[in-house]
Design goal:
- The protein is an alpha+beta fold.
- The protein has two domains: about 10-90 and about 190-200, Ribosomal Protein S4 Delta 41, Chain A, domain 1 (Orthogonal Bundle); about 95-180, Structural Genomics Hypothetical 15.5 Kd Protein In mrcA-pckA Intergenic Region, Chain A, CATH 3.10.290.10.
- The chain has helices spanning about 10-15, 25-30, 45-60, 65-75, 80-90, 95-100, 105-115, 150-155, 190-200, and strands at about 120, 125, 140, 165-170, 175.
- α6 (about 95-100) packs across α7.
- About 30% of the residues are buried.
């Protein structure tokens, strides 16, 4: 499936946030990209604000429109607050859990590890990035992949206590998805209610 492969700094500057991780360009140019980025003072419409929030969520989690729409519809059918459930579904994607466990430095890198069959779920190789991880599932680095430099570098010094809904076992290079995170536990600055309002029109 197609993915955004353009300049990540351009997207980070568009939203004014380092949505792909640390961004040195954003520190120097904290204004939108383009010829008029510095002086742009145009007022954004309500629809524009809602659309921007949806785009930010899609870029943050690396999800395309159809997948995102399907997740929203699933969230709308699920008991609970739709916007919160949507974020919980995004957080439960296998590529995101691999990223949260510190196995990969970024979500795109985590996605690549999953697609290249370096990750197992409950002992079985899963190469579907959108796979929904369930409470109790054990996500691990495949035995023959434990020596990969990208994984070793990512795990070096990573603070595994940052996220209370997952736990990490360093000796086996595996993590357990303890429970679905609450909204308070999810660190992303996404205003999910604006996305709900956009899709509800």
């Amino acid at each position: 499936m197609a993915r955004y492969t353009g300049p990540k700094s351009k997207i980070a500057r568009k939203f004014g946030e380092a949505i792909y991780g640390e961004d040195k360009v954003l520190a120097k140019k904290n204004y939108p990209p383009g010829q008029h980025g510095v002086n742009r003072r145009r007022k954004t419409s309500e629809y524009g604000i809602q659309l921007r929030e949806k785009q930010k969520a899609k870029y943050t989690y690396g999800v395309l429109e159809r997948q995102f729409r399907n997740l929203f519809e699933k969230a709308a059918r699920t008991k609970g607050i739709t916007g919160e459930v949507l974020l919980q579904l995004l957080e439960s994607r296998l590529d995101n859990v691999v990223y949260r466990l510190g196995i990969a430095p970024t979500r795109p890198a985590a996605r690549q590890l999953v697609l290249h069959k370096h990750i197992t779920v409950n002992g079985k190789v899963v190469n579907i990035a959108s796979y929904q991880v369930k409470p109790g599932d054990v996500i691990a680095v495949r035995e023959k992949s434990k020596s990969l430099e990208v994984i070793a570098d990512a795990l070096a010094g990573f603070n595994h206590s940052k996220y209370p809904w997952i736990e990490w076992d360093e000796s086996s290079k595996s993590g357990r998805f303890l429970h679905v995170p609450t909204r308070e536990d999810i660190p992303e600055t996404i205003k999910e209610q604006l996305i709900v309002e956009l899709y509800s029109k």
